[in-house]
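Pasting as-is:
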Amino acid sequence: MKPWIYYIIGAAILIAGAVFARGFSQVSVGTVQRNPTDAVRFPEVQGSNLEGRKFNLPTDFAGKLNLVAIAFFQSHQTLVDSWSPAVTRLLGKYNTLKFYELPTLSKENSIARAFIDGGMRAGIASKATREITITLYLDRAAFIKAIGETSDQTLITLLVNQKGDILWRGRGAYSQAQEELLERILKQ
């Protein structure tokens, strides 16, 4: 790789880190829609995976059941990674289950988005992982409320069916207790 590419990758990573570190406090308008008469459902949101494919969620989730890890800060990646062995086990056991990672950020301008997405893309060698990593740029406060949460301070993991119903939720790092509760739902 040419030496100058390292500068571009480094700059993208630094910008992404700075944006994550400040917590995206400059929340602006985003599109999070939820029918208030519904039970807690995954709201209608738009995003793109790290391969550039656009998604309308929850409609475009591919599984009958979808395990969705929602990370709000770069430091949450460690929490997502703690779930990896369990996700691998569960995906092998339940063929109707799909997994997605959703870095959830406040709406930024297109230049900042390009740097952030480029930095994430450069940091993920696996095409399969880039395909299931869908970045959401939206009104984070509205999104958090729509999924029935009150805080973005930890990883939120949801089990979402094809209709968008949230069937299970976990918070923070993997634990055997959370996996056991999740698996009870998956067995039904």
